[in-house]
Amino acid sequence: MQPVYHSHHRIGHSLFIVGAFLLLLFGTILTPMSSGSTRAFGISDVVSGSNQARAQLNKKPLTSNAKLMTAAQMKAEDMAKGHFFAHTAPDGTVAWDYFKKVGYSYEVAGENLAITNESSDAIIQGWLNSPTHRDNLLNSQYADMGIGMASFGDYQGHKGTYVVVAFYGKRADSQAIAATTNPAGGTTNFKPRLMPVSPEIIASIAIILMAIGVALELRHIRRVHHSKKIA
Question: Cα separation of 10 and 190, whole Å?
Fold first, then answer.
């Protein structure tokens, strides 16, 4: 029976080592890269990036309008709170309702949305790559811009995401009933996942392997101790 004892000892030791390695990987590499805030940019970066994109195509820069900045931030926070990513909220609220709330009357208005855990450059590039978002970003009719941003959390398995709202407009003395509105939809930009299995599953597997390893080791110790008593 001695070879069986040693076999259990080797298996238990190996399982414990593999489990410990996976747990170490989870704690030092996977968890920091997949949880918590990953934002490395701010609203000002999206504003400057938007105007840089316009300048490259000989478009006039947009002015950061205080009312639109407030409206866009309200929309971003409402999306984060309600955990939805769309032009129309579950209660039917649309972008232009926020324009009205802050008292911004317009001749023409537009909205771009984005959700990301990357950078402001990724947001701008995502808008440029989408025809409808590109039209909004580069539209010569607009004069003003407002950007809002809020922490969204998990989105379709992606961690640490932020939702970004861009409102565009051209002011009017009074609200034109037939004013043009341009909702362009939303773009998504995410960091590539390290692996298809979530870090939490890796951690669970690691703990199970370590537990099995410890159980086999204890069983080995008890049997060796028992065999010594018999001898």
Answer: 43
